[in-house]
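hey can u check if this looks right to u? its 302 residues, i copy pasted from the old doc so theres a chance i mangled smth
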Amino acid sequence: MTPPRDEPGSNTESTQTTSSANRGSRLWLWLVLAGLIAVFAPTLVWLWGRWTLSVWHNAHGLLILPVAAYFVREELRETRHLPPSSSAWGFAILVPALLLRAFDAGMHTELLSAAAIVLAMPGLSLLLFGVARTRAILIPLLFLGLALPIPLSFTESIHLQLRHLATAGTAAVLPWVGIPVFTEGTTLHIARGPIEVADACSGFSTLYAAVAVALLTAYQSTSGARRALVLVTAAPIAIVSNVIRVLLLVALVAWFGTGILDTYVHPLSGIMTFAMSLPLIFWLGGDARSRAVPAPAAGTPS
């Protein structure tokens, strides 16, 4: 007997059907993504306003986002060999996030909605990338929570301690550069007049960003010693960077008058603290996890 033969074109039709189904699934996933962007659009605008309000408040969010995105990209590059996949378990995470967003719609805090965005990220990743890839990028996704603004009522005591540290550090160095100074609380008295180290100059935003970046850098580091070093030194680096900034500002006031604080120099000095702290933390953490390159198979051209 002759075995039955496949009809011509049957394999092609099956492949086309599978391809059409995949395209349909992808279309639905991108529609879900578009819907989430529409739902969270007001919260995204609110977050952008908080991050760009000034370099003194919550500016760390603008730095944490690209750093987390970089680590997500690096982890996804490691999983390029995996086939495309999607997991419906993503809805089990997305639904609670949407409920939290709906709850906050009546309270108008926006902070709960911002937390809902961070909660929704793993769920969206499960839908778009599947379980294996989501497991690989889960830690960087969760670190996005560090970009959320913290209400001042929760950090007031930390701000005060940082202000005292900045005042004491600046007062200790100023006589070395020939500027007499007298401190009263968090106020520096020099010949040009009093200069208060306010909450905006406490360096909290730099400290927050430095700790967050240190955690991500330690996560990627291959050396236990490097990992410990970067975690231990992150806070001191941020504090010293802020003391240097306050010191330079007070010196400029002593040389050019208090009007210098009303120029671009003042906010630019805030950016300087990030520019000093974060590259140093990256350097102390060492290179990112080494990427093993598979050797070519025998007989395969390199």
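Residues 152-285 form one domain.
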